[in-house]
Amino acid sequence: MGVGRFVYTPILPLMHAQAGLSAGAGANLATANYAGYLVGALAGTLAPALVRSRAVLRGSLLLLTATIAAMPLAHSTAVWAGLRLLAGAASALVFVVAVASLLHHLRDHPAHLPGWAFGGVGAGIALSGLLVLALRSMADWRAAWWAAAALTGMLAAASWRLRPEDAPAAAGSGSRPEARTHRWFGALFLSYFLEGVGYIVAGTFLVAAIGQGSPGRLGSGAWVLVGLAAVPSSALWARLGRRWSRPGLLLTALTIQAAGIALPALTGSTAAALASAVLFGATFLGVSTLALATGAHLRFPRSVALLTAGYSVGQILGPLVVAPLLRHGYQQALLLAALVVLAAALAAAVLRIGFPHHMGGDHTVRVRQRQPAEATRP
User: Fold this and answer.
1) Per-residue CA distances from 128 to 25, 117, 222, 228 (Å)
2) pTM across the whole model
3) Residue 209 predicted with pLDDT over 70
């Protein structure tokens, strides 16, 4: 999923230079992918049986691979948009099936273990960046897409036997949220929605922005750093969430991310580009981990579904909002994205004030009871 969804970012500069793709059209292709992701996420939410289906997982893996392989066969923005739409839907279904599986089968394991599984997205990003970095001097944009399809196919084969979650037992009556929970969930929802708007601008245009004022290889190299920094990030933020307030950590992660997004717009130095990549990669998966865990802590009904939907809508809006700014390069778009992420941090700050930490106390007790045993593990 990390390759299939995010390889577009390092290939985008090649398509600008070699396929005649304009900056506005590039933003539209990104929007199509994010719209497909929303469709896939909603399908998994509205039809829970899809999340428990091995056939859906395997079909989505095949569809994701096929849409990547078909990209170089066309030279039409409309066809490319359709393919990216399908790729978005397939990657969302792969993600929700995989996440549901790991959360179900690892529910009695330490919280950082599922975090390492989330790091697979970062590993896919790093691999896609390395792939394009290796090919850009010897092949064109078509070869990059075909190589990405081959890599996706190999990873799909490796994950072919993943076992989806089991059918749920009869659910008991859940407790209704306290009235004040709605207030805190509203702040969380706003923060996560704004994160979707802001982070996706960097997730789409960071390589192109760095490549504009730097040697071409630096942009792809920075994307590799994004992926490498993302691999351990969810696990590390999950560990920190056991000892510090999740809203406080969310505020910290969003502030760090805003700084990372703004850096390439403020200076074109190599050090700024590399620091931006590390800060962005170290936070964007961590923010998702913290936000979804906070929603679960609040015991708000269907919190994961609602947060994911808001995040997905934000991803669709992000490229559309900055598209008019792309005529002048990527600096203004990145600065606007950084401001939006700062607004998300402000919403997290509101969430942190008076946050009901007493809720979810049973989980806290279980975590504390496990700590001595975990401390002896390597």
Assistant:
1) 22, 18, 12, 11
2) 0.80
3) yes
